[in-house]
TrEMBL record:
Residues 176-207 have a biased composition (Basic residues). This is MARVEL domain-containing protein. It comes from Penicillium arizonense. The chain crosses the membrane at residues 12-29, 41-58, 70-90, 139-161. Residues 173-207 are annotated as: Disordered. The lineage of its organism: Eukaryota, Fungi, Dikarya, Ascomycota, Pezizomycotina. The keyword Isomerase does not apply. The keyword tRNA processing does not apply. Keywords: Membrane, Transmembrane, Transmembrane helix.
Length: 207
């Protein structure tokens, strides 16, 4: 019961924090699409992982009874998302020490496309506030790290659910077997007692 409550709570936290990641990175993806440019991996990887992860989190939350029965599989997928978020965060690692109050893009200025050098050349409004770009990337990076922790934790909780569910199934099976055995024993005992009582009836002889 406690494991189920913790699992559901952590799933809800994952979903709540995945929404801003998707929203902020979708802003960048849309900008690159409108500029007809390829979205760089440090945005695309985390965006795709977050979109798939939120569908997975919602599905396992809605079908929680199925989640408990296949907890090992859920734990495995959560560990896969753990690794995927690690990869996404690693791609964005350049923004970790950036000062968003006075950020100039640095070595990623060209790869920022419409949010960087390409925007400057064409007076694209997306490039007018580079500090906003920095802040959004840094926020996505920070929340991505949180999701790394969340999915590792829910993988462990899924393993705990597996052990709890297995113990419940074993106990129910044991109780059913004992109940079945007791009914059989009671039935056979009644049969033997009826047999003994019938064998003890006095015989009547006709003289």
């Amino acid at each position: 019961m406690i494991g189920s409550v913790f699992f559901i709570f952590n799933r809800l936290v994952e979903i709540v924090f995945l929404i801003p990641i998707i929203g902020m990175l979708a802003y960048f993806v849309d900008g690159y699409l409108k500029a007809n440019q390829l979205t760089p991996p440090y945005i695309l990887v985390l965006f795709i992982v977050s979109v798939i992860a939120i569908f997975w989190a919602v599905d396992t939350l809605i079908r929680f009874s199925t989640t408990k029965r296949s907890a090992i599989f859920v734990a495995f997928i959560d560990l896969c998302f753990f690794g995927a978020f690690v990869a996404g965060v690693y791609q964005l690692r350049f923004i970790a020490n950036a000062d968003c109050a006075s950020w100039h893009g640095g070595s990623v200025w060209i790869s920022l496309g419409p949010f960087g050098s390409y925007g400057d050349r064409t007076d694209n409004p997306l490039a007018l506030d580079v500090n906003k770009t920095c802040a959004m990337l840094k926020a996505s990076f920070a929340i991505g790290i949180m999701e790394v922790v969340f999915f590792f934790w829910t993988a462990l909780l899924a393993l705990f659910l597996h052990h709890s569910h297995r113990d419940v199934v074993v106990k129910e099976t044991t109780v059913r077997r004992r109940s079945h055995s007791s009914r059989r024993g009671h039935g056979s005992g009644s049969h033997h007692s009826r047999h003994r009582s019938s064998s003890r009836r006095p015989s009547h002889y006709v003289v």
